[in-house]
Write a structure and sequence with these properties.
Trigger factor, domain 2; 3 domains; Alpha-Beta Plaits; single chain; Chitinase A, domain 3; 44% helix; five-stranded antiparallel sheet; 11 helices; disordered C terminus; 11 strands
Length: 460
């Protein structure tokens, strides 16, 4: 085998591999002899079929088989000989492929960059800490009780008021023409919930069961459906029933229904769940700060093939967003080329951070155990009740699918490893500060930048 260098620019590598015709013919002949010992042809005993006849009958298919295996083996051997670390599957194309001639093929690939991740113990991070306040806890209790409430039909002849639910049929129209999605039967409309178009629910106050009424509203300018945004609409509403809500009290009986022995135990559990939600948000914010600092401190080149794959995945999602009319108003006036440029920068950052985290993890022996994968598969299986076993078998039989579970676990373990080494300062913040739009402070990698264009959105 001869390896001929063609290109070593940047992360790109290209070389031709030449395999002597004698080597190919020797392997073809050997394989034909194997076939001859197995095949049965009329007039010949097994193992006695002439090589010439075998070559006539099976030569083409055997040669194709030998060429494929020779190319795969030689490609891997050449990569190993040059100590290359391919970023993706090499692209192989034939140069010479004729019987009686040397086999020559080209190999094009990109290699992983050399990364100097350095000592992560010098990284300084701020951990936002937000204790659950009594006000927030009381609000959470109210919301919890609201989810347990029941409705009962109002039998007295009275008008609907805020807090009631109206069961109604309605038909919406714009300039006298019905529009798609503007019609419903037996819809339950809670007055004051804010679930309908602004102004719709309020106009049902005073309505009575059995009455018809007309509701006039204007769709918000940023309404998801572009053909309706900013337009005046009219709804013909038939009120069929009026219902009131009955909210249960927080009692030991209710606590027992929720699997807790008493009210105090239920409150303790709920407060702990709220605090865990705060802590999860805090970790997310700290991770975003970490990723920004890692991105700022590392500018190594990345394989463009990996960037292409990442960008294609992002852009497919973006096309769905544009198709559904949910594009950010900030992006509405941008050309497709401008958007692609922004999202390609996001893709490049995501690839760079992925490679960097992988390097840190490998250098510090961070790994994903079988128990980690089993837990992840179990969580996935729980999403498909009754099909749990099928989900497990799917992941066990599909390495690529299993890798899709392994990758995020590995990333979180590397992040936790860095947190364990970094210098972290706690800072108490309010819930509002904790939940503030992170794009106003620290944009990240897997989303588009909004206010700070120099960085890409968060890598979650």
């Amino acid at each position: 085998m001869q390896v001929i260098e063609k290109n070593t620019e940047g992360l790109s590598r290209e070389f031709n591999v030449v395999i002597p015709k004698a080597s190919i013919e020797e392997r073809v002949t050997s394989r034909l002899n194997e076939v001859g010992r197995q095949v049965r042809l009329p007039g010949f005993r097994p193992g006695k079929v002439p090589l010439k006849l075998l070559r006539t009958r099976f030569g083409e298919s055997v040669r194709g088989e030998i060429l494929e295996s020779a190319i795969n083996e030689s490609t891997q051997a050449a990569i190993a000989e040059k100590a290359l670390k391919p970023a993706m599957q090499p692209k192989v194309s034939l140069v010479t492929f004729e019987e009686g001639k040397d086999l020559e093929f080209s190999v094009k690939l990109e290699v992983l960059p050399e990364i100097t991740s350095g000592d992560v113990s010098g990284i300084e991070l701020v951990r936002p800490v937000s204790p659950v306040t009594d006000e927030e806890f009381d609000k959470a209790i109210d919301e919890f009780l609201k989810t347990r409430r029941t409705t009962e039909t109002v039998t007295e002849k009275r008008a609907a008021k805020k807090g009631d639910a109206v069961v109604a049929d309605f038909v919406g129209s714009i300039d006298g023409v019905e529009f798609e999605g503007g019609k419903a039967n037996d819809a339950t409309i809670e007055i004051g919930s804010g679930n309908f178009i602004p102004g719709f629910e309020e106009q049902l106050i005073g309505a009575k069961a059995g009455e018809d009424t007309t509701v006039k509203v204007k769709f918000p300018d940023d309404y998801g459906a572009k053909d309706l945004a900013g337009k005046d609409a009219e709804f013909k509403v038939t009120v069929k029933e009026l219902k009131s809500f009955k909210t249960p009290e927080l009692s030991d009986e209710l606590a027992t229904q929720m699997g807790e022995p008493n009210v105090d135990a239920l409150k303790t559990k709920m407060r702990a769940m709220l605090q865990q939600s705060h802590d999860n948000q805090s970790r997310l914010r700290m991770k975003r700060e970490l990723l920004d600092k890692l991105a700022e401190g590392h500018t190594f080149p990345v394989p463009q093939g990996m960037v292409d794959v990442e960008f294609d995945a992002i852009w497919r999602q973006m096309e769905q967003v544009m198709k559904s009319g949910q594009l950010d108003p900030e992006d509405a006036d941008k050309s497709e080329d401008d958007l692609k440029t922004e999202y390609r920068a996001i893709a490049e950052r995501r690839v760079r951070l992925g490679l960097l985290l992988s390097d840190i993890g490998q250098k510090n022996n961070v790994g994903v155990s079988q128990d980690d994968l089993t837990r992840a598969m179990t969580q996935e299986a729980m999403r498909y009740p009754g099909q749990e076993q099928a989900v497990f078998e799917f992941y066990q039989k599909n390495p690529q699918a299993l890798e899709s579970l392994r990758a995020p676990i590995f990333e979180e373990k590397v992040v936790d490893f860095i947190f364990g080494k970094a210098k972290i300062t706690d800072k108490e913040v309010s819930l509002e500060e904790l939940q503030a739009d992170p794009d106003d402070e620290a944009p990240a990698a897997d989303e588009k930048p909004k206010k700070k264009k120099a960085k890409a959105k968060k890598d979650e």
